[in-house]
Amino acid sequence: MKQLIIILTVLITTITMAQEKNTISLNERVRFLDKNPAYQASVVVSTYYANYGKSSITATQLIDGFKEKLTQSEIDLSQVKKDEIGYITLSLGKEGMLYHFKTNSKEDALKFANTNALGSSRLSYDYVAKLDPDEEAEIIKKAIDKARNRASGIAGKMNKNLGEIIKLETNYDGDEWIRGIFRDTAIGELVFDIEIDFELLD
Prior knowledge:
Elements: H1 2-19, E1 23-33, E2 38-46, H2 59-72, E3 80-83, H3 84-89, E4 96-103, H4 106-113, E5 120-129, H5 133-157, E6 161-170, E7 177-180, E8 189-201
Antiparallel strand pairs: 1-8, 2-4, 2-5, 3-4, 5-7, 6-8
């Protein structure tokens, strides 16, 4: 019985090795610019950022002042959502509230970013980009064309022919692409890393 098990193991291993294909694997990076991204921001309003010494300003007063500043900046307050649980997780130990703002308007995003109120602190500013199916197909095609051109050159130097694509993986999963906005940020830019495996033929 032991001899039979050993023979079967050897046979299975040999068959598996025989079925393996010679491949060439390349990674391509493709950049895409979403010209109409959405924008989102999070701002904390708290006595943590306003009370110094014996000052007794309340969180309610700070929040009212924050909303008044937004109204003066012509921001629709219905787009500003409070997040009680999010504020608690900040563990500031003071009364206040966390607010989130999201808009498709670059103009409104700038207005919100330029609104300053006593007791407020900017937590994050992001752009939100997403591909439609046609844009995703365009990016994949561009990556394949680049990879095929490189792979053909490598295969030629190995005296091999390039076969079909046998695997393609990308870091994009179809969800929104959220990235922070900083001084040198290319707003709306999406960077895709795509791995493509080609079969190598004799």
